[in-house]
Amino acid sequence: VAAAKYGFLYQGQRYIWQKKPRGTPALDLPAEAFVVFLQNHDQIANSIAGQRLHQLTSPGRWRAMTAYLLLMPGTPMLFQGQEFAASSPFLYFADHKPELRRPVRKGRREFLSQFPSMANAKIAEQLADPSDAESFRRSTLDPAERHAHSAAIALNRDLLALRRDDYVLAQRPAEVDGAVLGARAWLLRFFGKEGDRLLLINLGADLTLRPGPEPLIAPLEAEAWQILWSSEAIEYGGAGTPPLYRRGYLHIAAESALVLTSVKGEAAHQTRQRSHDG
Question: Residue 180: helix, strand or coil by DSSP?
Fold first, then answer.
């Protein structure tokens, strides 16, 4: 929540790993001034196999976090191939003169040894050689996967269109607040003059907000929430979107994200009626 509201977490606090203050104060800057991402070349390459995020988590969590990335106020960055869930790894590779290749390989192993999971000598032996042309070749994207992974393309395309075209989500500077709903669930509420949007993220099990005392989930008077977008849509590889309410309480499916829009009048009346019938 704080990352979405303020753009960057460390703004001068002491950082345990570096044992010194990290970052500079930036509370006066709008969130869209910051570039936000789920993965970059450092995070992927600084691992044994160069695996991408969608290969390290479940499909549902990956879709939910993609929604969070592309709809939060910060300026999103997609790492090459992320938009179509590329299967190719991204390994550390470098084209140096022959006399530098061995020192680079040695320095690479020494750098990664700071991570407990890669400090083991046997694991270090599995690291790809940065100077081997095969490391570069394996990291090359396959354009044909754009068609094979059409669900990932649709997910990113629709979220970017929603970010661009929805007048509340596109508003800059964004008027947004957020709250934690559980150990693995949170929300962002985007405020607009003609209605609000609610982004719900649940990385855990099925969650029914009962009780639901968090003020940010309450619609305005005489209004109600309706589903505008769901990460569980079948076209994204989801299992289908369940009803929004269970016995009058908001329900969020496991490992999913929802975007809700506020409605008025008859639409609000019908939504409230269905929520109590569910």
Answer: strand
Identify whether the C-beta of residue 202 lies closer than 8 Å to the C-beta of residue 257.
Answer: yes
pLDDT digits (tens, 9 = 90+) for 237-257: 999 999 999 988 999 999 999
Domain region containing 125: 98-138
For residue 246, what is the domain's CATH number? 2.60.40.1180
- In the structure encoding, which two tokens stand for residue 73, read together? 């106020």
186/129 same-domain check: no
Rounded CA-CA distance 82/201 in Å is 20
Which is it for strands 176-182 and 75-76: parallel, antiparallel or unpaired? unpaired
Residue 56: inside a domain: no
Residues 240 and 183 in one domain: yes
pTM: 0.91
Q: Does 191 lie in the same domain as 107?
A: no
Half-sphere exposure of 4 (CA within 13 A, CB side): 24
Residue 40 has pLDDT above 60, yes or no: yes
Comparing CA positions, the residue from 161, 188, 163 lying closest to residue 175 is 188
**Burial environment of residue 242 by CB neighbours within 10 A (0 to 12, 13 to 18, 19 or more):** middle
Write the pLDDT tens digit of every residue in 15-36.
Answer: 998 899 999 999 999 999 999 9
CA atoms within 13 A on the CB side of 105: 16
